[in-house]
Structure formats: C-alpha cells, structure tokens
Amino acid sequence: MTEVVGIRFKRTGPIYNFDPSNIELEVGDNVVVDTTRGLAIGKVITTSQEIAPGDVTEPLKPVVRKAQPEDLEQAQIMSDRGKAALAKCNESVERFHLPMKLLAAEYSLDGSHLTVFFKAEKRVDFRALLREISASEKTRVELRQVGARDAAKLVGGVGMCGRSLCCSSHLCKFEPISMKMARDQDLPLNPANISGVCGRLLCCLSYENQQYRAMKQRMPAQGRTVTTQMGKARVIKGNTIKETVLVRLENESIVELPLSEVELISSNSSQ
Asked: Could you tell me the pLDDT band of residue 270, with boundaries at 50, 70 and 90?
C-alpha cells in the first residue's frame, strides 16, 4: 500500500495525491509541495491514507513542508508578478494580432515556471509569443488553451441567478449537461435562456434532473385518458412542480386537478 495525502490548489480545483513525507498534517493545513511546474502552495483536503499501488497513476511528488508565513508572503508576491506578466502578455498578443484571449497567468512559488491560460476558437500559432514571453520573464513559460467552461471557472463572475458562478464557487468537476435535461424540466429550449456566461448549457440543469425525471414518471402523458371525480377526461399537460394535471372533461370544460385526484385508464380498457 502507498500512503498519500490529498492536496487542492484552487478552491474548486481537483484533489491531487502527494507523498506526505512523514509530515504530520491535518485537514486545512497549507503546505508547500513539489509539482511538475515547480513549488506550489496547496491546502490539505484529505489526511494520510493508504491506497493500492495500482491506483497511483504516476510517481508521487512530495510534500516539502508546512507552509510558513514567508511562503504565504512569497505566494502573494508571485500572484502580483503573474498579474503584471499577464498585462505584458496582452500587449504582445495585440501586437502579434493573435486570435486568442488571455485569462490568467500563474507563477510557481519559486518563480521557475509561468503558466498563461487562454481561450481561442481554434488552434493558434503562438510560437513567436512564447519566445517573447520567455525572454521577457526569463523563466520557463507554458501557454495553455482551455475550453469555455474552464475559462469561466478561471475568471469567475455572476450568473443569471445573481449568485457567483457555480464553477468558480463550489463545482470541482463538470458533469455532462444535455438539452434533454431542459426538456425534462419543461424549460424553454431557447439557448439564450438556458446557457451560462460561458455560452454552454447551465450546470444547474443537472441539480434537480433526477427529481424531475422521477416526478414525471408519475405524471400521465399528454393525450392520455384519465378518470376524475367529474368523469373521464383527456390530459392536456401536466405541471411537474405543482404536481397538477390540466385536463379536458367530456363536456369540454378545462380544469386543473391535483395528481392525486387523477387516475390513468389502462390502454387495454375501453375509453
């Protein structure tokens, strides 16, 4: 068995396994770890646990030490340095007329690596830009293209609900979202009404999807014949949230009834 500790670098980022290096750690501790991009500060999410060697996808990087006040100060210095680098990179992008939008620039704790995140509609030849940034910053530079959802997660913002974007406030990974979820919830299928600031379908469509599907299974389908206290009727539509059914009676009256007062007539029965 291999002993690991779970570390997260961003509030809603993934959890990575590291070698605890025999350091006593507690959940919430800030630690300095060695990564493929140099030293970084992360937060302990899960304390030491043992996993099967086969579950370790690559050689574990070590926890170097618990973060000290000077490490946190250095992290702030690197954060400010990254913002300055992003401004300079934007100037270079404009000068080279590159079809890309820079989102963020992050330095490793030791300044040995700079990662610049950007989004673009298609592949971009940024070799000239990379050479200029590397020469200007005098460090190893990586330009990383991200998708629309990851771009929104990086930048943050406010959704149509008036709250901070789910992806930047609490979602640690993106779940598949489909138009069928919108149909199951009787939402308008106009993309403008069910898309987030990223231009993709709203992540929140998945939150209550299972409940909607379960409730809809209890609702009689449109056009089916049902019995009510007022006689036979034909279903016009159902209201999943209210758990009511709009029906047309034999006398052509239209009434809305609670689902509990409507009984479906079997298709094998005479209607």
From this structure: very low
DSSP 3-state of 25: coil
Dihedral, CA of residue 162, residue 164, residue 170 and residue 172, to nearest 10: 110
Give the DSSP per-residue string, 174-195: PPP--HHHHHHTT----HHHHB
Q: Are 206 and 178 in contact (CB under 8 A)?
A: no
Of residues 227 and 269, more confidently modeled? 227
CA dihedral (156, 189, 120, 146) positive or negative: positive
Q: Which residue has the tokens 């990379």?
A: 130
Bridge partners (DSSP) of residue 119 are 101
Whether pLDDT at 246 is above 90: yes
Strands 113-119 and 140-145, by their bridges, are: parallel
Give the integer Cα–Cα distance in Å for 124 and 104: 17
Which residue type does 132 have? Answer: E
Beta carbons of 89 and 133 less than 8 angstroms apart: yes
**For the chain, the helix, strand and coil percentages under 3-state DSSP, each to the nearest 5:** 30, 30, 40
The stretch 211-232 carries a mean pLDDT of 89
DSSP 27: T
CB 19 within 8 A of CB 35: no
Grouping H, G, I as helix, E, B as strand and the rest as coil, residue 36 is coil
**Average pLDDT for residues 220-236, to the nearest whole number?**
91
What does the block give as tokens for 6? 């779970």
Largest CA distance in the chain: 83
Which tokens sit at 14?
A: 């993934």
Residue 14: count of CB within 10 angstroms of its CB? 12
- Of the candidates 83, 82, 117, which has an alpha carbon nearest to the alpha carbon of residue 100? 117
